[in-house]
Each structure stands twice: as C-alpha cells, then as structure tokens.
Amino acid sequence: MGSKIQSFTPREIVSELDRYIVGQKEAKKAVAIALRNRWRRQQVSPQLREEISPKNIILMGPTGCGKTEIARRLAKLAQAPFVKVEATKFTEVGYVGRDVESMVRDLVDVSVKMCKEEAMQFVKEKARGLAEEHILDLLLPSPNKNQGARLHIDNFQEPAVQEPAHIEEETREKLRLMLREGKLNDKEVNVEVSQSGGMPMMHMFGQGVGVEEMASNLQDALQNALGSRKKRRKMKVPEALELLIQEEAHKLIDTDQVNKNAITRAQESGIVFIDEIDKVASAGGGGRGPDVSREGVQRDILPIVEGCNVSTKYGVVNTDHILFIAAGAFHISKPSDLIPELQGRFPIRVELESLKEEDFVRILQEPENSLVKQYSSLMATEEVSLDFTLDGLHAIAKVAATVNSTQENIGARRLYTVMERLLEEESFHAPDQRGKKVVVDESLVASRLSPILQNEDLSKFIL
Ligand SMILES: Nc1ncnc2c1ncn2[C@@H]1O[C@H](COP(=O)(O)OP(=O)(O)OP(=O)(O)O)[C@@H](O)[C@H]1O
Ligand SMILES: [Mg+2]
User: Which residue, 25, 92, 189, 254, has most beta carbons within 10 Å?
Assistant: First the structure.
C-alpha cells in the first residue's frame, strides 16, 4: 500500500510543498530527496539494502521558519503516519521521563488510526444500509422478529393484529423514505450501545520504562474484558443512525488485517519528527564536559534510528525504513556536538532561512491555507467582507518584521498575533455589521497598529 503512494518524484514533492510553504527551497529539496531515497532503498535487492543506511535529515533554523510545517506537510502528502516528538522529553533508561521506544509505539497508534479510518470509509455505505435496517426494525418491530425492539413513535402504532406481509413491507418502505428525508429526526429510539470508556484509574501508573507499555496493555485487556457490556439508551434517530453506522462498520472491518496493514505502513512510510534535537546535543567547548544525561538520550535514540525491532501491542515494528527528521535551532550547539554515531545517521543537513518582510507578504496570501484566506472566510460567515490591498499586506508584513527585530524573532508566528490584533474590531463587531465591506489597506493597518508599535511595552504584550 504505502510504497506506491510514496513514489512521488522529488520535483513533485517540492511543488506540492510549495502550495503551503513559502521559500525554504533547500529544506524542501532535502526532504524530497530523503523521501525518495527511502523508496529507492526499498527497491534494491535485500542484500544491498542492508548495506545502505537510511539517510535522515537535520533541519536547522530559527523558530517559526517552517521546520515543523515542512515535515507535517510532507507526511500528509505521502499519506504517511507522522509523529512529532521532543527530544528533551526523553530520558536515559531508568530515569523518569518517556522511554524512546514510545515514539515508535505512538507512530503505530497513528498508523492504526489511519488504516482504520480508511477501512471504515471503505465499508461506510454498506454499514449505512445495515444501520438503516436496524433503525427500521426498532421503529417497526415485526412480530416474527425478536421481541426486544420497542416502538417509540406515536404516529406509528404497533399493529394489533398481524398485517399481511406486503402491507408490512409497504409501511417499511414508506418509513425508510421518511428516514432518508430526515422526517424522523425528532423521533426517539431505544438503542443498545456497547459500553466503552476510558479507564481513568490506569493513569496512576508511572511512566518509567516498560511500565508505560504495560499500563497500556493492561488497559486494553481490561477494556476487552469489560468493553462488551451493553446498555440500552434512548436517543434521537439521527444520533442512533450515526452510532449504528459506526458499530456496523466496526463489525464489517477485519481488525487483524487493519492492524497488520498499520504495522506495514508505519514501517514502510512512517515519519518521525524529532524536535529540539539541539537541546540534547552537548554544547561543546566552554570548559563543560559532555553532559552525561543528554548523551545518554542520544545513545538511547541511536538504535531506533539505526533500525531495530520495537514491540508494540499490535506487533513488532522494525524501524529500518522509518524516516527520521530531526530539527532544532542550533543556536548554541551544532550538529557536530551530537555523538558521532548519531551524526552519521543524519547525513542530510539543511539550514532554513530566517523569514523576512518579503517572505511575510507572500506567506500572508500565497499558501492554500493562508491567513488572508482564513480571515476572509471566517468573516464571510458573518457576511462581512475583507478586502486586503497589496499595500495593506506590505504594511502588515512590515509590522511583523519590525516587531520580530525589536522583540523576539518568532518568525511567521508573528503574523498570527499581528493579524489578530489588526482585525480585532471586525472579529468583535461582525455579527452586528452584516453586509459591511472592510478594506484592509496601509492606512487601516497604520491607524490600528502604529499606536501599539510606538509603545515598546505595549507591543511586548500585544503583538
Ligand atoms: N516558510 C513558511 N511558509 C508558510 N508558512 C510558514 C512558513 N514558516 C512558518 N510558517 C507558519 O508559521 C507557523 C510556525 O511554523 P513551524 O511550526 O513550522 O515553525 P518551526 O520552524 O517548527 O519553529 P520551532 O523551532 O519553534 O518549532 C506555522 O503555522 C506555519 O504555517
Ligand atoms: Mg517546530
């Protein structure tokens, strides 16, 4: 399954990423190559494959320049299971904190969820049909069917005497039509629902090595033991239908097969994004010796990146082909401060550029999910139209760039705070201003934001 999806060429990958991320050409190229390389490695003969070590990436760049965004989009594009973890959350074996294997278990969880959703989608129509029948049974219990079903509709009296089959059939079809047209939406039915629910008490377990997994296995076991309990609940028809579709779909899918596919997909196309890798690199020089626990974390991460087997509740996962993308600002430490073995596993290094005013102008409008599109659509729901002029966009970008240079540089994230402030009036008053047209131009930006910009303390808090 997964390997076919991945056969995008690097050029195709870059152009897909261009739809969402402005600039950062080098980084896009690097992730595109890495993804393709994994596919290539899967194509060569097994003996040679063992010899070729996977080529993982380190993305280096200041905050808010698109590191996470690139990895996330890449995963989406490849329909790959994706998890983001923070290197600083892990601790050496035996200490409090998450064990490194949890990243693989999380990845499999994501993969299972993906595969299950796809499988559910696949059987959805069939499930809907079955659920419909079920609802009709509940509304129209026929005497020769089970007695459990109860009628809860006032207009449809339970037939006192047994109706001839064809009349019954006719009523059923009429009812089906009404159901589909939503005419039964106010009716209530009694539905048997299986009791599933979290086991909050399980959270008492600590998070040490192994225990974490033990706890989750135990939780599953308990859920299996208790989960089959059923309970009758009264609810409206649409809710019942939705619930029954879910239930029927669950019955229709082959869970074992889904889990098997999920393991394969995690192994063959999974992407693990390890953020803040620079924080576990020992900042070299400065007289300080290598920090033992940081190095310990790196040593723990190493086997996973090198390729090993991790057992999960769905089965054993081999990490050979999982793509690892590490990221960090690397202000203080450098990739060369990582332990040599880890450096070797992350041979592709890319530096991302710090975003500038011109980039902001583009980020505001070009991406498919751009802020301008987001705000315009949000306001359109209130029938208020926003018209951003080019000088307006430049003015917004300029404010963002200025605040980034005078305060902390938080990259494109600054656009979020600036936009929010700029459009606060509209956000608040929109419901009372249906039909209004707002032109967001240079003068509007100036009038709303300059007073804040001129006051440094104020801008610290607001922008
Ligand atoms: N080059 C870009 N093009 C479009 N949007 C961007 C770009 N860079 C950042 N953004 C937007 O800014 C936000 C923050 O970006 P992202 O999460 O990728 O930052 P980051 O580089 O991972 O930072 P950090 O080091 O703090 O994790 C995202 O919502 C993203 O949409
Ligand atoms: Mg990030």
Answer: 189
What is the 228 CA–ligand 1 centroid distance (Å)?
Answer: 44
* Same domain as 102, residue 172: no
Indicate whether residue 63 lines ligand 1 (CB < 6 A).
Answer: yes
The string of pLDDT tens digits covering residues 61-115 is 999 999 999 999 999 998 899 999 999 888 765 555 678 899 999 999 999 999 9
Domain count, the chain: 3
- 459 within a domain of the structure (yes/no): no
Which range of residues forms the domain containing residue 219?
A: 124-252
Q: How do beta strands 323-328 and 57-60 pair?
A: parallel
Distance CA 364, CA 366 (A): 6
DSSP class of residue 205? S
Q: Is residue 387 part of a domain?
A: yes
CATH code of 421's domain: 1.10.8.60
Closest by CA position to 173, among listed 139, 212, 143, 150:
139
Q: Is 68 in the pocket of ligand 1 (CB under 6 A)?
A: yes
Q: What is the pLDDT of residues 335-346, one digit of tens each?
A: 999 999 999 999
Residue 461 in any domain: the answer is: no
Among all bound ligands, the one having the nearest atom to the CA of 354 is 1
